[in-house]
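ping. complex inputs:
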Amino acid sequence: MPVSPRRALGAVVAVVGLVLVVLGGWIVVQLGPSGEARFSAISKAPGAIVVTSDVLNTVDVPVRVTATRRDRGAVRLAAAPSTDARAILATSAVSTVSGMHYPAGTMDLRASGSGALTDISTADVWRLASRGAGSAGLVVDQGRGPETVVVTSGDATALTDVTVTLTWADRAWFFEALAAATIGAVIAAFALNDLWQGRVITAQSGVAGTRASRGRHDPRRHDRR
Amino acid sequence: MIRDDMIGDEMTRFVRAILVSLVCVVMGTSVSGCGATDALLGIHRAPKAKATSAPLTVDQAKRILSRAFTAAYLGETTTGAAAQGKLRTAYTGEGLRGVVGRVKLASVQPRVATSPLQAPPPTLLAISRGFGFPRFIVAQTVASEGGLPILHLLISPDAATPYRIAMSVEMAPPATVKPFDPLSQGSPLVSNGTGSLVTNGTGLAVAPATLLDRYAAQMAFPAKAIPKPPFAADSFSGQVRAGAAGVAKAVASQATFVQVHKVVPHSVYSVRQASGDALVFGVIERTDSFKVKAGQNVNTVANKAFVKLTGKKLVTKAASITTLEFVVFAVPRSTGEATLIAAREQIVAGSGS
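pong. complex structure:
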């Protein structure tokens, strides 16, 4: 018996609704009510740590960059136009955040350069800067990109064993995901209901048709005779 | 029995349809999964650098001015190695040469102007446009007790080197500075070779390098005729030439006197203004050379600056005094003469034998 176009469409709509429910629900659970996405990595290679604009400026919400030294030494974070940050670091040993994995919350680091780090704190290219003992954080707002964040010890000393965390927070993401899940549930419910109703009507029509045909001619009765 | 079979068939088809669709959607989302998540989280490509924006925010520029002027004030009002360090933090290039000379001669020369830090907060006039180097900041201060407004040019030659004062020059009344482009856009530097031969509409009445060269040449002593000077007559060059003529006359019986003016290489910066005109900053080095005539001795006690710089009160062979002349011109976009709007001179060195 061929499947009617209406029922095929209903099935597709139901599946789309279910996918929305699953995807939306999953993101709701992952982000939480604060709508926070967090990624971190531990840099063991000596040198500075660099977060380029390809990571920093790919969303429209502020990014919080946090660096924590295991040895509790001084940490300095600074943000500058990417061209300036590249010019300053030039051949210095750096670990660059090269990739992020969601929902694992991890980041890839790519080591490059081997030169000693110069004291970058005297340059005037840094739009934002923050320093602390053991840990420091910097919130980079959007709108002046492309910018790069550089994590150093605050002087020419190379960093080792530093945990870098990037956090994006947008409550809208949580509510958008919640809305997607809700809309998906409603769509799926209507589609499934329609499919169910159609199935019953088809079954009842099929039974009625069978009874009617039996009334006119029932070969099995003749056979039984 | 038949009805149950049919319902069973319907259920099987229904479940099969759902499963097939689900598999399709899962495969589709797994292929474009990253894109879907990216879209949901609003992830997009990083923006490209805008060539028409300023590399500094206004707050950054004000912090830089505050730091430079504070260091300048401390460097000029204290002594010792720390003061020298502050001066090197505040000034660069010929600006540093000039301020070192001024500090050295502070006891024998009147203060040229009130320290910029003692003035009300500086007015930020212009900052660079784009991300190339060198970058600049143009600011103006007016001493709280009055006096002439001072134009300041701060330069950063590369990303690693901070902005420092390249020159601070008193404006000549009644000169004014035409407005620059908005600070958020920054103002472009004009190539020193940009002159009237440039036909793309962005030229100037005279190329900055040519302007400075000809201005320096017309101040020479003995005087040289400069045909069709591209600048209007001004009191500063008039005073310099009159001073040179006076010195030559005063020492005529004992020595010959020559004065040479030469533009300091890499000291010329031209900043485009909103009207298309440009403000041209430059430094000219003036060398006063004395050649003592045979059998003559020149007593230099009256020249306290020379004595302070060389320790010599008597010259028997030759002597020279080096002075820096900081000048700022307003250069019109298409036609007309450049106008000197600010000038300052500072003795920086001397020698004698």
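The longest strand of chain A covers residues 36-43.
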